[in-house]
Each structure stands twice: as structure tokens, then as C-alpha cells.
Request: fold
Amino acid sequence: MITVVPSIMSYDHCNLLQGVHIAENYNVKRLHVDIMDGVFVKNISFGPQLVHDLHQHTSLKLDVHLMLQHPEYFVEQFIEYGADSIAIHQESSGNIAKILSNIKAHHCACALAINPGTVPMTNLISLVDYILVMGVHPGFSGQKFIPDTMNTIKKLIEYRQKNELNYQIAVDGGVTDELAIQLAEIGVDTIVSGNSFFRSPQKFMQSLQQFLK
Ligand code: DX5
Ligand code: ZN
Reply:
């Protein structure tokens, strides 16, 4: 069974609320909000104000994905503004374990995001509610899924079983409805989808119907 989390960055930035309503109408429970600083990735997306305002306009849970060189400067503000979970990258600067623990201490779910090719550190895995496995090099929506990501996902599923851990596995970037079915079948808990979901939400949700939580 799988949870679908639409990524609002893929929707028309002049009509974001329309994108939120589409997500709500398809009965999803969460929305993915990509935050990019132009340094950690070569794009600039949204800031804390968007999370604040989304929180006023929707009851969808807000999963904030920080693609920031210095996430520690912003986590508390995102929590105050209504984030339900925050993902920070292992590749960011600073003491990642400390930042994750700080998120937890503020009663917000925390996640470790990993870029393609990054091996997640076991001491960090044990701290998180979920791992956000990137299927693309982050920065832009509409990219193609990198096939080698499957190996990382399978290793994380094995590691979870072997060590009787409870973290969830979410996959972000390049997830089409066909791929989402494969991911559901191997034990992924959550998929984030921008381009494929918003291009045709009905087709996307219909093809996943029997796998939806
Ligand atoms: C990539 C972002 C993703 C992206 C997903 O940098 O983190 O969340 O918006 O969009 P698609 O599904 O189009 O790859
Ligand atoms: Zn993302």
C-alpha cells in the first residue's frame, strides 16, 4: 500500500491554490513543498511564507523538503509556520544529526533526504521517521528517474527488515504512475510526484487505485 504526495512546485506558480484544490479533490492527505536556495541546487523555488500561507488555506499535511546549504537556519521557522514534516539532505552543511534531533524535539516528523549516489549514514537512519530517496538530481521537476535508485531503495528495505527498524521510505523525483506501482510492490511507503501527478491526476490516481492506503 502506498501514499501519494503531490509536489506543488510542479504546478503553475501563479495558481498554486488551484493545484492544492486538485490534490484535495483526489483525496490525498499530504502536499510536498520543495524549498530551494539556489546554492544547494541550481534553482530557487519557495520560502517559508508559502508554507505559512498554505497552512492557512488547506488542511493537507505539509511535507517540507529543504534543499538548502544551511537548513539549520530555517527549520524552526518552517515548524512554526505549519510544516508537518521536514526533510533535510545528508549532503547539506552542518551537523545533520543535530538538526534532525532538533526537528524531532519540536514534535515535527523528520526525514533524511539523499541524492542519487549518496549512501545513507546508519547513525542518521536511526533518527528519522522517513528517508526521502531522490530519484533525480534535485533542482527541477519533470526529470527522468535514475534507474540505479532502485538499488538504494532495495538496500534500505533490506536494512529496515534486518534491523527491525520502523522508518518509512519515500521516493521523490521522476515518479510516474507505472513506476509508482513497481515501488508499491517492493515495499515503498510513499511516492512524491509533481509532473506526472499534475499532468493527469485522474489517470495517475486511477492506475494506483488498488495500492492506495
Ligand atoms: C526535485 C524535487 C521534487 C520534484 C518532483 O528537485 O525535490 O519534489 O518537484 O517533481 P517530478 O515528479 O516532476 O520529478
Ligand atoms: Zn522534493
Observations:
- The pocket of zinc ion (ligand 2) is lined by residues 7, 32, 34, 65, 172, 192 (CB under 6 Å).
- The longest strand covers residues 30-36.
